[in-house]
Amino acid sequence: MTDTRLRTAVAGLVLAAGLLVGGCGLLPSPAPSSSAAEPSGSATGEPGTQAEQCAQVLAQVQSIGDDIGRLGEMVTNDPFGALGLLTSISERVGSLQAQVTDPELLERIGEIQTGWDALVADAQESLGAGDASGLQRAADQVAQLGQQVTELQQFCTGA
Question: CB 3.0 to 4.6 Å from 51: which of 24, 35, 74, 95, for a disulfide?
Answer without folding.
Answer: 35
